[in-house]
Specification:
With 213 residues, the chain is mainly beta. The chain has a single domain, classed as Porin (Beta Barrel). It has 1 helix and 14 strands, in the order αββββββββββββββ. The protein has an 8-stranded antiparallel β-barrel with strand order 2-4-5-6-8-10-11-14. A hairpin with a 4-residue loop joins β5 and β6. The termini are far apart.
């Protein structure tokens, strides 16, 4: 239940924040409703906060079951020109892990991903700006045990591919939706024994908000 409550809290916080900001901003002006090449102006900073959920792409390890995890993502990007941005993402996710036979709650795996990022925004459709991004970095994995077992997952190479869209409510504020795949494939030491089949790669589904300045 605590995994569900953490996910609900994160999404609820995001929605309350978005509603609070929306009450203070004005609509996008009419001239922004046209098609154009390039999705951003050069020299802009973009700060974003998104939250959502993330299922694993496969079984974490043999004879295990993993819940749909909570996901929080922060980003800071800078536009080099009207279609290319560079910057950094910081992403956290948590998955509850249990053994299927016999049914035992092992605990939860936490992953903090540090992700240098490149993003492309080739076009703008009125207030809608589609984009794609790619990140390479490191996954810092840890495990919180609920039993007497000692589980230590390795830190791994991170590769993340994301795609999504911003809906510009003003020139400074946008709502955001994004989907991403992230590679997190390594090993774990379980009670002193190495398990080479430990794969926490996942799909992420994010909703949030961004500020442009």
């Amino acid at each position: 239940m605590r995994f569900v409550s953490l996910r609900a809290y994160a999404i609820g916080f995001m929605l309350v924040s978005a509603v609070s900001i929306l009450s203070l901003v004005s609509p996008v002006s009419a001239e922004d409703g046209t098609h154009s090449s390039g999705g951003i102006e050069a020299g802009k900073w973009v700060l974003g906060m998104r939250a959502g959920f993330t299922p694993l792409t496969q079984t974490l390890t043999a004879n295990s079951s993993t819940d749909v995890g909570s996901l929080v993502n922060f980003q800071a990007l800078y536009s080099l020109n009207k279609w290319l941005l560079v910057g950094m993402m910081l992403e956290w996710e948590r998955h509850g892990v249990s053994v299927e036979r016999p049914s035992i709650d092992l605990g939860h795996q936490d992953t903090v991903s540090v992700l240098p990022t490149v993003e492309v925004r080739p076009i703008k459709f009125g207030p809608v700006v589609p984009y794609a991004n790619m990140s390479f970095g490191v996954n810092v994995n840890s495990f919180g045990e609920n039993t007497g077992n000692t589980i230590s997952p390795s830190n791994t190479f991170a590769w993340r591919l994301g795609w999504g869209a911003d809906y510009m409510l003003t020139k400074q504020f946008a709502l955001n939706a994004e989907m991403a795949y992230k590679r997190n494939d390594g090993h774990a030491t379980v009670n002193g024994l190495r398990d080479d089949d430990w794969n926490a790669s996942s799909f992420g589904f994010l909703l949030g908000a961004k500020m442009f300045f």
